[in-house]
Amino acid sequence: MELTYPPEAETFRVEIRAWLEANLPAGWFEPGFRLEGDDRKRFNEQWPAKLYEGGWICASWPVEYGGKGLSIMQNVVLAEEFARAKAPLRADFFGDTLVGPTILQWGTEEQKKTFLPEILKGRTRWCQGFSEPNSGSDLASLKTTAVLDGDEWVINGQKVWTTQAQFADYVFLLARTDPDAPKHKGISYLLVPMRQPGVEVRPITQPDGTAEFNEVFFDNARCPKDNVVGGLNNGWVVANTTLAHERGMSATTSYRRFEEELRLMTEAARANGRIADPLVRQGLMRFHTKVQILRINGLRNLSTTLLKRKDPSMAALGASNKMFWSEMHRDAMELAVDIHGSDVLLVTAGPGSWPGVTRQKGREGYPVSPMISAFFFSRSETIWGGAAEIQRNIVGERILGLPKEPSAPGA
Description:
Helix content is 45%, strand content 12%. It is α+β, with helices and mostly antiparallel strands. Helix 1 (7-23) runs parallel beside helix 3 (72-85), helix 7 packs antiparallel against helix 8 and helix 7 runs parallel beside helix 9 (317-340). It is globular.
């Protein structure tokens, strides 16, 4: 299944390729090219500014808010060409992809003028303050509170699994602003400065020694009264918009990461002779088949959007697609470990880089290979963004019309 792109989209593709070739480091497109040490650090520091100068950060946003006003097809082609070049397309994932589009849809003009330019320029870093210790999948049961004190909200509570909180300037936060309302009501979506008294970030060290996730404690932290996005007590609706951006992006590019992993795994199996094992061959073929299903579903999603057709089967894609690829990837990384056998215990296991692994620090005295770092991360993918069990409930209840899952006694 292929999609025929209109001529103007292909013309735009040529423009993007030319820009990438002119702006990426020399040798980027040569086989085996890697940036190391200071060169990698320099690239990471300079690339957001180049993206901004090229107008590629949030290029689908309206021109009046700093974007290029790209059409759907132009935005697809942009994502495809950056993916083909393996070049970063975002300055800050949480700003560019989650809170930025949410502010664009729900924010006041003042909020758009204040926050969007800083996101576009890559000068403000964001984190997401949704999950709490006892409110993950059941997010609406959150306990963090925000109480109005004059012209400021006073925030108290705890968030957990907050990615990149230690580097963030702001958090887009869900807090209960009406304790007497039903649990899905009375929640507001706040934009809260992280660098202030009353905000404490505690890293959560993972098995590979990295600490990407954090606990965040709010003790009388504050934010301006006007930093509510989408209206007071409307946070649940606004948050679902944010999650839709997270789950619905990159329809025709997400499969490429897994396609590259399949190539690396097949090469390793051929090199060490495991390709002769029928179970390994079957596992590789199963992974290939699922990658193609992911690719075809992306094209279906795109074509349905372009044609403005209502396809009942596509309504379940948000939940079922996330469930599908996350479980597919978990199984694939288990296969990668099987292919390498006991060698996975070595820091040299697998190639020197792995798709989706952007840095490799590891615990002092206990470094791990990029492949094993990806293996660890794959264990979390069935949980974050909505656990697989919750996705099954969504598909069963909203699409198949099955009875709602019974609540636990006393819930």
